[in-house]
Amino acid sequence: MTAKRSISVPDDVARWLDGQPNVSAAITAAVRAQMAGIQLDEVLRRAGIEVTDAGKTRWRDRLAAPISDEALAEGQRMLDEAA
After folding, report:
1. What is the reported pTM?
2. CB 23 within 8 A of CB 17
């Protein structure tokens, strides 16, 4: 089942949507990604982990850093041992 909605978006978003082959699919994917993030935050809260904007920023920065060659080699060594 689907429902039709009429929305207003900022100009930059409208320009991006204008370039999409399927605007409904693009909006659906974006909203579902937002929903998944909210659901993840709720699961973490239920597990006793309080999600904050500062914590999200800290992890984004940490995960954006490249993995060192030494860490990659250690990970490969561990995988080889497990096989």
Report:
1. 0.59
2. yes
Give the pair of three-digit tokens for residue 43: 């699961």
Alpha-carbon span 54 to 62, nearest angstrom: 12
pLDDT of residue 10: 97
Structure confidence by residue, pLDDT tens digits, 61-75:
999 999 999 999 999
Report the half-sphere exposure of 68 (CA within 13 A, side-chain side): 4
CA dihedral 10→52→27→6, nearest 10 degrees, is -60
3-state helix, strand, coil in the chain (%, to 5): 70, 0, 30
Q: What is the pLDDT of residues 15-38, one digit of tens each?
A: 999 999 999 999 999 999 999 999
Query: How far apart, in whole angstroms, are the C-alpha atoms of residue 41 and residue 26?
Result: 23
